[in-house]
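yo, Guanosine-3',5'-bis(Diphosphate) 3'-pyrophosphohydrolase is done. seq:
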Amino acid sequence: MADADLLLEEVSAYLKPQDVDHVREAIEFSRAAHQGQLRKSGDPYVTHPIAVARILTLLHIDVQAIVAALLHDVVEDTEVTLDQLADKFGKPVANLVDGLSKLDRIQFETREDAQAENFRKMLMAMARDVRVILIKLADRLHNMRTLESMSREKCERIARETMEIYAPIANRLGLNDIYHELEDLSFKHLHPNRYAVLAKALKVARGNRREVVGKILDAIRQRMDEQHIHADVSGREKNIYSIYKKMQSKSLAFAEVLDIYGFRVLVDDVPSCYVALGALHGLFKPIPGKFKDYIAIPKVNGYQSLHTTLFGPFGTPIEIQIRTHEMHRIADAGVASHWLYKSGYTKINDLHKKTHQWLQELLESLSQSSDSAEFLEHLKVDLFPDEVYVFTPKGKIMSLPRGATAVDFAYNVHTDIGNRCIAVKVNHELVPLRTELRNGDRIEVITAPHAKPNPVWLTYVTTSKARSHIRHFLKTMQSGESAQLGERLLNQALHTLGVKPQDMDEAHWNKLLKETGGKTRQDILADIGLGRRLNMVVARQLANIGETVPSETSHHAAITIHGTEGMAVQFAKCCRPIPGDPIIGVIKSGQGLVVHTHDCPTLRGRSGGEQWLDVVWAKNINRTFEISIKLMVANQRGVLAKVAAAIAEAESNISNVNFVSEGEYTALYFTLEVNNRLHLANVMRSLRKIQEVVRIIRVKNAG
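structure:
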């Protein structure tokens, strides 16, 4: 077989003779295991693992990974077991194959669940051994190269998954060539017409611009010689998808994308990089704001280079990368440079440490994701390639995704810092927590011992680490608060049945857990508080009482609302109840107890499927509540200032204001913070004293 012979020839170039024999043995084992199996294209199946192994030889990867690549589908698609592989090829090879095998033997409810679990397993294996993902990327690359035989729907699904997950992983690991090819192939299958048009235009432009490119190359080489800089200068064509992205982001036609060619200058050492940069800025004028120093501040995938964009001949902008030969090796191979270049480069070792740290942090945040959609969202967010570099107060550099906020920074420092964050200083100035960070910002986080995450943070954080830790904290907090509410609701139901809650001992609870399949007492109480279980049903099961309620049952007491129940009790935004209002409670599944005013318009016509509860206010409630009011005021200068002053004098705070002009009058809609109904009456009394106020009402259908 020609492909097998080529593989053996390629591994012979860098592996020992005994290792080449292992590869030959794995080829024969794979061929025998896949005997009779064909790919969708009609080719013998064994051509696929051989092609995957050949891609990996370009990275000079070790014999265990080459063997695992040849055997990566045998456990999944044949009767061969992992134990057989371990006996024949060793435990490390079997572990690599196991990390690559899908979880086909487990039944999942949706394709998304299966996909999420496969990624989770792959990332866990990757954290133990980065070769797992190198083999997986090679496997995906060959599948993308041979995707034409699949149905259109399957092509699009695989291409989208590649664009969203695998290409960013390749970029994150610094595998530049694999990254660009995966992007181009994904683009080709997701948008075949656009790809074909661009490919044709690029081919024409390649011929038209050959002379210009040649002149630029000659000019750069001549300048390097004049400055006595030993340099290798080359031109490169940008990949199709990066050209398409530029056209999209800047709304350009193909003819307007002038920099489809980039130029690379490779020098011997770091000082020469900066000397070369100065020489080139003397040759062509630099475009302001288009210089990036990734040598002083490397990218998180280890990439180092100087980037500059210059005004070239005929007004053509030209992009130039300047780096050392060592930086170029890492730029091309990323984490795989460990195998490709057998050396003691400290930068490569640092890159492996950074990669391992990234994987551990990613797995930590992903492990807190409770469902597939959330897991995949975290994964895609964390693979977002654009970065911003900021400084801690001690001058340490931290990289975050573009668009990251001060809260993202706080969680990146430490989970406890994020959870207790109350304010932040950017460049010594206090700024809102939602402030987006910029390159070079110096960040100082201010914390408080009893502070806790705000659910609003989820609307603007960008990193998966911050998002997952906030969600985890809120879920844990909600569970504890819901369990407290659930216990009160259950006790109320037990009293209704004439049963004393203190009589329900461990034996009753153990019997209930066994019958209902509940994990713990806390879980059942939390479910009651969140409306997932009915308190009366659980009370009957716990007390072992049938459907008939005893005649001596006392009427159930109302639940007392203290206003400090946290997330377990919510106050409806439609009517905004405040202490002093007659209220009613509705248990909504997954949300817990929602408190409404008894005359709330949204409660009319509600179905009987929800659980309604009698609720009353506690006597002394020490907190503020939001209410909505509407004022009709005459259109006169300074009226808004008068209204705001009156509200402040009544010791209330304005949290939101809107207005609608209606001819001679304006309707002002305020959201105010008040303590109770009496406080609201004082506020409204102050507002009525203003001459321009024509009418004032409390709004109870604001939702």
